[in-house]
Amino acid sequence: MLTGTQDMKKQSSTNDIVILGQPFIELYGEQIGSSLKEMLSFKKTVGGSSASIAIGCARLGLRTSLISQVGEDEMGQFVINTLQKEMIDVTQVKKFSGFQTPLILRGTQSKNIFPTIFYPNAHALLRNDIDSSLINKNSTLLISAMNFFIENMNHISRKAMISANENHVKIVLALDHFPSDIAAKDITTTLQTVLPLCDIIIGHEDDFQTATGILNTHSALKHLRTLTNATLVINTEQGGFVINDQIPTPWYNTVSHTGFKVNNHYNYAAKNAFISSFLYGWLEKYPLEKCCEFAMASKIITQSRHDSTPDLPSHDELMTYLSDQNKIVTQMLEAPHFSHIHYASTHVARQEQLLAFNFGYHQQWQKIAQPFNADETIIHHAKNLVALGLKDIAANTPYSSIISDDDIQPHILELFPQEHTIMRSLESPGEIPLRFKGDPDLSHMMLHWPQNHAAKISLIYHPDDRYVLRGQQEATVNLLHRACRAMHHELFIELIPPAASLSTASTISHIMQRFYEIGIYPDWWQIMPPRDQRSWDSITRVINDNDRYCQGVMILGHLATLEQLPLMFDFACKQVFCKGFVIGRSIFQQSLEQWFARRIDDQSLIAAVATSYQKAIDLWNDARQKAEHVNASKQEVA
User: Fold this and answer.
1) Where a domain ends, among 313, 342, 366?
2) Among candidates 434, 410, 431, which has minimal Cα distance to 422?
């Protein structure tokens, strides 16, 4: 029997848990309550209970490995990339040539009805035996009950369980969604032969009934106890329950947690949330009551959203939820701050720094070109040459980025590596109140953006603005913030106090504080370089108090020359949250004007742009190194 305080981890273990099972590409319908034939849109994610449980475990901080195979195709690479981003060990997720990664279409038609279609034969990938040593060096093996009804997986799973049992690796059997085309008696007969090898059997109350073929839960559990001594973990609508010994009467008179309720009772990915969170608590040696609390809380969090794998909570999210139980739970789940924790701790690939070049507004290019009588064709050609100058530098600088408005030609954006952030300026330049150019339906516009594109606005705002104006601008920014979160694009907010307003050491920090108070959490802030340490201290304090997930602050050097950058960078790099810069045409302004005047050729302009951008990056890196050296010296003295 198992206890929550049992010493689970081997000193030699590579991972806390290894999971054997088949991941899928899952397209889940966005219209809750619709059948698949009526579905209007789908979202893509990695699915299958094995992969979903692996993601749930990894998000909670468990060292997690998945053993499986995917097709040698783009969807297979998507699976691997997704698992890697979740910090899952994918060294044993092998590519299988000549076969497509399987696809699932899944809907949520009602509480317990999830219409599902598999394309192609989604259960035929694991064709070869696995190396038992991959399992034996881990502390725990999890196998989905589904495995025993899949060609080849049945044999491989049984072999893995026998090897794990012989090497004292704990075995967890996850009772999940059984195939609808398998007869109930076949499910019962198949599972009876593997139950004696299990240390934990975990699943929903309905799945225990299906596994035994007995519709009464008490009778089903009593029958199960005759077949196995495993700890039984039962997930119900009322709570989570653990039975270590004989089945009590009533059966739920045992270790449990029944404290959470939610209006939405969809139970697809929520099952996997329950399983992964219970195992997190168990592997981290928490008492079993606490394990049930983790499991139920994660289940409720997942159910409160779309009930799909991306909705599984992170460790920070779970602990925040449990620490705030004095609040009304439904309000907590819907609070902007709580939603932000989920977004920031699960969706964002954090960047150490961001070194951006701003193309500027098209009107600014027209103003530069006007003295030289350059038409639109020449201006577009100039932009293209600047992009070519930036291209090679960007290819060798992982944190390089560009900012452009929507007037820039698409082929220019295609010159930059897909993994680099491209910020798209959405505002009409200089307008107060803030107004967006182009499509007013922001979510519809972002639907057509590549994943590496981000929304960026320049906001002319001051805490002393008229109440009506502030409210109007805040509502507009909130619309953008919500669209960015819904479409999973980063948000950059550039703060610009009005030129005629009074700015103090706390003006920028007051603006930041206000936006945090109304539930707006940009990924990055962009500000003019503060001139004194008091300003930076205020900014640091506000970010620390409100958003420890903030990626950073970028300083604006739109009008700065190369000669002015060292002083600006040296001061900025000493600040905790300053993680990058934005520069513009001013670093090669003279060369650009010479090109418009036809005093230099295309290659000379390209070279001037590349040299200037690289110089700015070098100056930034030098400033960071000096700041790091100073900080290290201070720590040694302390």
Assistant:
1) 313
2) 410
Is 387 contained in some domain?
yes
Cα separation, 561 vs 335, in Å, equals 44
Segment 186-225, tens digit of pLDDT:
888 889 999 999 999 999 999 999 999 999 999 999 999 9
Average pLDDT (223-244) is 95
What CATH number did the domain enclosing 72 receive? 3.40.1190.20
CA dihedral 126, 129, 134, 135 (to 10 degrees): 80
Could you tell me the two tokens for 111?
């509480």
* Domain around 298: 17-313
What does pLDDT average to over the chain?
90
72/78 Cα distance (integer angstroms): 11
327: in domain: no
- Is the preceding peptide bond at 196 cis, omega within 30 degrees of 0? no
Domain match, 363 and 242 both:
no
> Which DSSP letter does residue 150 get?
S
Q: Cα(343)–Cα(305) distance, rounded to whole angstroms?
A: 12
For the chain, percent of residues with pLDDT exceeding 70? 92
Per-residue pLDDT, 629: 76
**Is 335 domain-assigned?**
no
Instruction: Return the closest-CA partner of residue 234 out of 225, 59, 62, 226.
Output: 225
Q: Are residues 261 and 391 in the same domain?
A: no
Q: Judge if 302 and 384 occupy the same domain.
A: no
Same domain, 306 and 410: no
Distances (CA, A) of 441 to 247, 408, 436: 57, 20, 10
Shortest CA distance to 584 belongs to which of 613, 614, 610, 608?
613
What pLDDT does 474 receive?
98
Per residue in 579-591, pLDDT tens? Answer: 999 999 999 999 9
Rounded to whole angstroms, what are the CA distances from 419 to 349, 351, 353, 408, 451?
A: 11, 11, 14, 19, 9
Same domain for 265 and 164?
yes
Nearest to 271 by CA among 296, 242, 243: 296
- What ranges make up the beta strands (E) of 384-537? 400-405, 422-425, 453-460, 491-496, 524-527
Does residue 373 share a domain with residue 308?
no
108-151 pLDDT, tens digit per residue, is 887 667 888 888 655 554 556 677 777 887 889 999 998 898 77
For residue 62, give the nearest of 269, 240, 348, 298 by alpha carbon.
Answer: 298
pLDDT at 12 over 50: no
Q: What is the reported pLDDT for 133?
A: 77
Q: Sign of the CA dihedral 479, 480, 481, 487? A: positive
Among all chains, which residue has been given the structure tokens 């954006």?
413
**Residue 340 belongs to some domain of the structure:** no
The pair of three-digit structure tokens given for residue 54, joined into one six-digit string: 């692996």
